[in-house]
What does this fold into?
Amino acid sequence: MDQVKIGQFIASCRKEQGMTQANLAERLGITDRAVSKWETGKSLPDSGIMLELCGLLHISVNELLSGERIMSEVYDKRAEENLLAMRREVEEKNRLLLRMEYWIAIPAIIAGLTIVFAASFTEMQDWLRIALIVFAFVMIFSVAFITVGIEQKAGYYECRNCRHRYVPTYWQTNLAPHTGRTRYMKCPKCGKRSWQKKVLTMESSRTED
It folds into this structure.
């Protein structure tokens, strides 16, 4: 999706409705700075307010994501293209989040174990040794809680029994037995427990890993 084109389209539609950036922001319950970022192509409207935004601008979501008015004869084709583009964008964001999990966890674990090793085999006062070991374990566990939160929010888990995809709560994710990103949890739809694999989107896709 062309963010600059979408931003220019939002600005044009806003002006057609006789609204300033501040007026639009107030009606959406956001800051005018957020509207400015949309219109300059620096960001896209959050999916949670897209429908409300389109209602205020008197356009469809399909037209918003296309960055232009769409003739009826090409509407369905453009809608399919926009849905695919949105899906690819969601997949990529979730993939980056899951990579970030490794970027945070691996260095923290290495650093923590290094501190424990150094504290265990280097001559120092006992209080300092204990303090370093406690610090290392606190750091490792803190990072573990953060990375579980990243994993929980990025994508979905798929029930092996009914193939339902959903986002569990943080503590359901954190307390579930796991191997890598596959966790043993109860499906909210069928009520059965199974080893559920992390997937990137709500719909099935060959590109998921």
In short: The chain is about 60% helix and 10% strand. Confidence is low (pLDDT under 50) at residues 205-209.
